[in-house]
Amino acid sequence: MMVIASAIQIPCFNGMVYGIYCVLYLPIFYFNFISAKKRLNSMKWLVCIIIGVFGIIACKENNINTSAPDAYLGNTYISHRYKDRLSAVQLIDRLSAVYPNADSLIRAQYDVTVYRIFYKTHNFQNQEISASGLVYIPEIRHYFAPVVCFQHGTCIQKQEVPSIAANLSYYVPFIIASETGAIVCAADYIGLGFSDGKHHFYEPNEEANAVVDMLGSVQPLLNKTYQKITFDDSVLLFGYSQGGHATLAAQRLLETKYDAHFHIQASAPMASWFSFENSSQLNVLKAALPFDFPSAYAYLINSIQSTQSVFSSYNEMLQSPYDSLCSVLFDGTKSTGYVNSKFPATFHAALQTSFVNELNSNPDNNFITALKKYDIINDWIPKSSTRFYHSQGDEIAFYDNSEIAYNTFKNKGGNVHLINLGNYNHFEANIIAIDSVRNWFYPLIKIKPY
After folding, report:
1. 58 pLDDT more than 60
2. Which of 122, 153, 156, 312 is the most exposed, fewest CB within 10 Å of its CB?
3. Helix 9-36 vs helix 42-62: angle between axes, to the nearest 10 degrees?
4. What predicted TM-score, i.e. pTM, was given to this entire model?
């Protein structure tokens, strides 16, 4: 951990020493010189004393920014506004309205204030845009604290993100901040929430940028809201469904670009589409298999076509009217339920026969080649402790995604583990996975007084 090591601390330390000298010793000389009516006039000595006093005060205030990692990442902060506040008691009461035994499951300790933050990031074309998210700040004073990054699951409509919808995923960061004293960041992702542009489903660079660039806004936010808490260099990451993919994408970026500046204590990518190339996930496109969330595949096709222009038109992949629907339904204004109702439960039926034949006969076809860029398991090896949590009964993100990711990394010497959550479906396993992460993360999270 870096403590009082940034360039700004050295002049601050010298100023404090000089300030103490002025305050303790100059008054002695002041009275001696006044009585002798020698040397400089008295006003100059008084100014020195005042400067010394304020030098100490200013230095004490500045120490809240000691090891802020945004000095390396760059200050990405744009603005913020107050969102919510729950005391530990209020958090339990609110959750008990939905989960009657919440008081026996949640060990809330700290009151938590939440701010909506707006920050600078970059899209897949490396164009600077603004993004949004929430920062959950425990009400503790004079502590170094890690940041836990929580990545939410699939959203199609901009306001479906937890920061606006206030669903279960809105309260998960509340729980973690209140139980541990950690700062928790929850990015909306590019194209969702109040972000510019459209969301490109599973595009790994945008996912990673949204998470990592948010870290550059944490310490500026703490300073601007006069929080006596400092973000140290420790980061923990977790997410479920699309959030699992975003977690792994962010981990890759942090370890390959900011490895010297951040310490990832733990990463938990859970129940996601990690391997399009080798998993059974694409079987839903290759054969007539029922799938409860068909719009997810349309969302994926829209993302691939929007970012890589694989085909000249959607009609080369999708039959009418699905080709036209796919080009207009993912602008962020339609709900997931509405979009899902527009595609057949057997998504294979929406596809052009020629496209399906190409998927089955040519593993190097343009679409699969483009999808490989969304795989995030082939070009790096996790250094930080990484656990894949997944249930074998998952009908949305098939279990072999995590098996392939685990085996790929393990064979290269990666620090990875695979935890089978049992035979639960995708939605049943969500809460089980989060509870498993709490059990893993909490002994690792340390807040340290200063």
Report:
1. no
2. 312
3. 160
4. 0.84
